[in-house]
TrEMBL record, chain A:
Organism, as annotated: Amphibalanus amphitrite
Region described as Disordered: 102-146
The name this protein goes by in its record: Centromere protein S
Basic residues compositional bias, start-end: 108-120
Keywords, sorted A to Z: DNA damage, DNA repair, DNA-binding
Keyword 4Fe-4S on entry: no
Entry's Gene Ontology BP terms: DNA repair; replication fork processing; resolution of meiotic recombination intermediates
Family the UniProt entry places it in: Belongs to the TAF9 family. CENP-S/MHF1 subfamily.
Example of a GO MF term: DNA binding
Entry GO CC: FANCM-MHF complex
Annotated Pfam families: CENP-S (PF15630)
Automatic annotation (TrEMBL), chain B:
Residue span of region Disordered: 1-28
Pfam families: CENP-X
Keywords assigned: DNA damage, DNA repair, DNA-binding, Nucleus
Source organism per UniProt: Amphibalanus amphitrite (Striped barnacle)
GO CC terms in record: FANCM-MHF complex; Fanconi anaemia nuclear complex
Molecular functions per Gene Ontology: DNA binding
Keyword Lipid biosynthesis in annotation: no
Full protein name: Centromere protein X
Record carries keyword Nucleus: yes
Location within or outside the cell: Nucleus
Subunit (UniProt): Heterodimer with CENPX, sometimes called MHF; this interaction stabilizes both partners. MHF heterodimers can assemble to form tetrameric structures. MHF also coassemble with CENPT-CENPW heterodimers at centromeres to form the tetrameric CENP-T-W-S-X complex. Forms a discrete complex with FANCM and CENPX, called FANCM-MHF; this interaction, probably mediated by direct binding between CENPS and FANCM, leads to synergistic activation of double-stranded DNA binding and strongly stimulates FANCM-mediated DNA remodeling.
Residues making up the signal peptide according to the UniProt record: none
GO process annotations (BP): DNA repair; kinetochore assembly; replication fork processing; resolution of meiotic recombination intermediates
Length: 146, 104
């Protein structure tokens, strides 16, 4: 959505800034609790602005990586490429990516097994609707890893 | 150039021997940053309306942004401790920001 004024002060951006500010306040609270030194409010505000700027850079880079791979959707590989310069970020993300991939694999095999069982009951074509991955899974996970 | 605060050059004092902030064995901190927020933030800056974030991409981007911000907070906190300050102020954040910007 290429609007000229979308960058700084539209209500939507203000809303995002507020949400980010809240989360960053909590991140600073955690660090303050761990280290025993409180953060001044101005630091949280400044860090929020810095994070907003960096988020813009991240978004553009992620989009470019996905486009380079001829994809419309930004995927795990794109994010891993983004954080390649930081060893700590790379390590954390690698671990989480593996966990997510393993989880997706388990969910997929479970769905495949459920589809197989339904087919065996002789429900025929009608079974295909009930075998929809989203209704079949009992995960309750919001994340739809398919 | 390792992003680890204990080896950060931006501190101006290499004597700090703080332990690594992210022990590999420790589980990742739970996300305080909402995926929904990050998704909208990213979409705001995508140049194409076709570009979107997959579920895994969104989760990892959210983690990355949260960890990245946490890294800045940790380094600023380290800087405050180095100077013996009672609280983390702008002068500490400003000192660590340049290196932080280069580490992603």
């Amino acid at each position: 959505m290429p609007e000229a004024s979308r960058e700084d002060d539209s209500p939507h951006v203000q809303q995002l800034r507020a949400a980010l500010h809240y989360a960053i306040g909590r991140i600073c609270d955690d660090v303050a609790a761990e280290r025993g030194t409180p953060f001044r409010r101005t630091v949280v505000a400044t860090l929020t602005e810095a994070a907003l700027s960096q988020a813009a850079v991240m978004a553009r880079d992620l989009e470019l990586f996905a486009q380079h791979a001829r994809r419309a959707a930004v995927c795990a590989d794109d994010v891993k490429l983004l954080v390649r310069r930081s060893p700590t970020l790379s390590a954390e993300l690698q671990r989480e990516a593996r966990r997510l991939a393993a989880h997706a694999k388990v969910a997929k095999e479970r769905r495949r097994a459920q589809r197989g069982r339904r087919g065996a009951r002789g429900a025929g074509r009608g079974a295909s609707a009930a075998a929809d991955p989203r209704t079949a899974t009992d995960d309750g996970e919001v994340m739809e890893l398919e | 150039m390792d992003g680890n605060p204990s080896t950060s050059e931006g501190a101006g004092d290499a004597a700090a021997a703080a332990p690594p902030t992210d022990a590999p064995e420790a589980p990742a901190a739970p996300l305080v940053l909402k995926e929904r927020t990050v998704e909208e933030l990213m979409r705001l800056h995508f140049s194409s309306p076709r570009t979107r974030l997959g579920a895994e991409g969104l989760r990892l981007t959210t983690m990355a942004l949260q960890l990245y911000v946490r890294e800045a907070a940790l380094r600023a906190s380290d800087q405050a401790r180095l100077t013996g300050a009672p609280e983390v102020g702008l002068e500490h954040l400003e000192k660590v920001l340049p290196q932080w910007l280069m580490d992603i």
